[in-house]
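Reviewers of the previous submission asked for a worked example of the structure-prediction workflow described in the proposal, so we include one complete record here. The input consisted solely of the amino acid sequence. No template or homolog information was supplied to the procedure at any stage.
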Amino acid sequence: MSRAPALASFLALLLAAPLSAEEPGRADWARDPGTGCRFQAPASLASGRVFWTGDCVNGQATGHGMLRRRDAAGAGAAFFGEMREGVPVIGVVEVEGGYEVGRYRAGALGSNSMDFQERTDSFRAAARAARAVAARFAAAGNPGSAAFYEGVAKRLELQED
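From that input alone, the workflow returned the following structure tokens.
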């Protein structure tokens, strides 16, 4: 009995599948245009290209770092916080006029019933992330950006109170 029909069907399905940067079954995954690292971005970063500055383990954003949206106008909103296997865990999104704060749930940070400890933990994770970004820029020989993100870390620490 020939396996050719089954093989032909399999190849037809494989070729018909869309090629994308998304995680299988996860339409909300994005890919850093420079490194190819995959992640989910909070909804407030949804428009424009998003870049990850941090560790990329097994092709996924991991640890403390920054997701920064960039569009035609330049740098946009940024998430500072912890990522696990490409998914935000906790942190802060700097948006015009303030912050979105909290744990990552249903595509966004925070909830209406966020308690004091979650807010404090979020700003602490964000400050650690900003310091990790500053260290990456310092190691890359970019002291200006390193100083900028060290300043971001200090500003985030002030929000803990």
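The chain has one domain: 26-158. We consider this example representative of the routine output the project will generate in years two and three.
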